């Protein structure tokens, strides 16, 4: 756990929009009133996420229920997956959605019939890729300072206050010293060795 005990405050979005690099896939995420922006901001260093993102870690934001994530656009009604959307299953429990045109990784999601080990509760959530959030919401590009603050909502989405998983895969001298990944005096969240 991070040693910084000061409470973290930040503007919270009611919703954000995002999309893939080529714009064939557009989405909107609506946040419930009681959404926990700290616990929902996580990272993953598993090899699957590294291969898919091409990056050393996956910055993800968890939204529950998964229906709060919806596709938007002119060519398809809300909620219908766009034609460019491709699903890849790297494991038995989850699907990874990406754009078949440009390759952008969009979300990781437990399969529809997945249940939590032990409780048997339905795993109805989705982790979207924070990096595909539109610049307006991510860092305030073109923001009006009213609906969207000038600095955007990036800290709400990617504060690292949730779980940092697969830290056993950390890279010495690189990701094992990163505050973004929960280390150091400003590191937040809980570091786990596996998922
Ligand atoms: Zn695309
Ligand atoms: Zn992962």
Fill in the keyword field for this structure.
195 residues; mainly beta; Metal Binding Protein, Guanine Nucleotide Exchange Factor, Chain A; eight-stranded mixed beta sheet; globular; binds zinc ion; Mss4-like_sf; metal ion binding; carbon-sulfur lyase activity; CENP-V/GFA; lyase
Briefly summarize what is shown.
With 195 residues, the protein is mainly beta. It is built from three helices and eleven strands; from the N terminus they run βββαββββββααββ.
Task: Report on this structure.
The chain has a domain at 15-42 and 58-164: Metal Binding Protein, Guanine Nucleotide Exchange Factor, Chain A (Beta Complex). The mean pLDDT is 92. Helix content is 9%, strand content 25%. With 195 residues, the protein is mainly beta. The protein has helices spanning 47-53, 135-139, 154-158, and strands at 15-19, 26-30, 41-44, 58-63, 69-72, 85-88, 94-99, 105-110, 126-129, 163-165, 190-191. Strand 6 (85-88) and strand 7 form a beta hairpin. It has an eight-stranded mixed sheet with strand order 6-7-8-9-4-3-10-11. It has a three-stranded antiparallel sheet with strand order 1-2-5, with no helix packed on it. The relative contact order is 0.23. It is built from three helices and eleven strands. One zinc ion is lined by residues 20-22, 24-25, 84, 99, 101-102, 104.
